[in-house]
Specification:
This protein is α/β, with parallel strands linked by helices. It has 2 domains: 205 residues, Aldehyde Dehydrogenase, Chain A, domain 1, CATH 3.40.605.10; 176 residues, Aldehyde Dehydrogenase, Chain A, domain 2 (3-Layer(aba) Sandwich), CATH 3.40.309. Helix content is 46%, strand content 17%. The protein is built from 15 helices and 13 strands. The strands form 3 sheets. It has a 6-stranded mixed β-sheet, with helices on both faces. Strands 5-4-3-6-7 form a 5-stranded parallel β-sheet, with helices on both faces. A two-stranded antiparallel sheet has the order 1-2. A hairpin with a 2-residue loop joins β1 and β2. α2 packs antiparallel against α4 and α2 packs across α7.
């Protein structure tokens, strides 16, 4: 029950807030040591429940550990400021204080890393936490909370609750919750932000993206093809910073597509614990949704260069499998271009000039990550300044 968890966090807050920073840091260090020593256990949980390959699972834990290590510096980060004589006879000082109970709503695609972005920082600063992981793969959060308890964290400081929208709404409206952090799709991010802000909470809400890479005619096409395949199909494309669109400035498109296609042939889809490059998608519903874009792309006039449907892994036709998929000549008004597909789907859009490619990227409705591939330092610098 979410309200019970919030009450537990609220009851634990005064004592945890008043715990010395040295003691909080000591517990955080113990958690860091335990997590580092037992990260293989957590990686196995991620692969078994989410489906991502072992290398990706270990990679996200490593990224999360970096945040835990950053949280160890909280005694320094919590230092205030003091200024004398800002006005006649007036001195000013600032204090950094814990807020209270904070809520964290994390997505399915990084069930260890995203919670680790948030709860170590919040807890090190003296807050207490209610964490609501995705209902699709909640076990990592349970495991990390138990490990933190083993490290010496008092009861009630980190609480894990499970559920869907009902659980989320309970966090958003409860007056005891002072702040909300969220990672997920753009429509839900907007809902989280608006609802939580309406109820007087501080909000971090990170939404989706449609990330582009711009390839100029002078680029190293082998390097660009490697990057497109790794960034497009890592974690089966289920990550908000995946490359979704390759913007090819002519005349490089044909050669670049050939190089990408050749590399895609070497990708192995299968059980993440068996040395594969890509695991399954998170659910059948999501797999079917992503696969449906292949028909949509063809109907919208795109060319399906590589079709990932119908793939079988060790004879397992019932798994949530979808192979890497590549589209060419994608129209910018098509659903394949406009939607965040969140799967192993890469689209190539052909443009005539650098300026046309830049305008395309800047017109996207999403907050994108982006990259340029060129051997021209001036073009790279110009892109850095002009891309939005």
């Amino acid at each position: 029950d979410v309200d019970v968890a919030i009450a537990s966090a609220l009851a634990a807050f005064p004592a945890w807030r008043d715990t010395s920073q040295a003691k909080r840091q000591s517990i955080m260090f113990s958690f860091r040591e335990l997590l580092n020593a037992r990260k293989g256990e957590l990686a196995d949980i991620l692969t078994a429940e989410h489906g991502k390959v072992s290398a990706d699972a270990l990679g996200e834990i490593t990224r999360g550990l970096e945040v835990v290590e950053f949280a160890l510096g909280m005694p320094h980060l919590m230092k205030g400021d003091y200024s004398e004589n800002v006005s006649t006879g007036v001195d000013v000082y600032t204090l950094k204080q814990a807020l209270g109970v904070v809520g964290i709503i994390s997505p399915f695609n990084f069930p260890a890393m995203v919670p680790l972005w948030y709860f170590p920082i919040a807890i090190a600063a003296g807050n207490t936490v209610v964490l609501k992981p995705s209902e699709k793969d909640p076990s990592a959060s349970n495991w990390m909370a138990a490990l933190f308890t083993e490290a010496g964290l008092p009861d009630g400081v980190l609480n894990v609750v499970h559920g869907d929208k009902e659980a989320v709404d309970a966090l958003l409206v409860n007056p005891a919750v002072q702040a909300i952090s969220f990672v997920g799709s753009t429509p839900i991010a907007k809902y989280i932000y608006e609802t939580a802000a309406l109820h007087g909470k501080r909000v971090q809400a990170l939404g989706g993206a449609k990330n582009h890479m711009l390839v100029l005619p002078d680029a190293d096409l082998d390097l660009a093809a490697d990057a497109a395949v790794n960034a497009g199909f890592g974690s089966a494309g289920e990550r908000c910073m995946a490359i979704s669109v390759v913007v090819a400035v002519e005349p490089v498109a044909d050669e670049l597509i050939a190089k990408i296609t050749e590399r895609m042939k070497g990708l192995k889809v299968g059980d993440g614990m068996r040395g594969c490059d890509m695991g399954p998608l998170i659910t059948k519903v999501h797999r079917d949704k992503v696969a449906s874009y292949i028909d949509v792309a063809a109907a919208d006039g795109a060319e399906v260069v590589v079709d990932g449907r119908g793939i079988e892994v060790d004879g397992d036709a019932s798994g949530f499998w979808l192979g890497p998929t590549l589209f060419d000549k994608v129209g910018t008004d098509s659903a394949v271009y406009q939607d965040e597909i969140f799967g192993p789907v890469l689209s190539v859009v052909r443009v005539a000039t650098y300026t046309e490619g830049l305008d395309l990227i800047n017109s996207s409705q999403y907050g994108n990550g982006t990259a340029i591939f060129t051997n021209d330092g001036g073009a790279a610098r110009r892109f850095q300044n002009e891309v939005q």
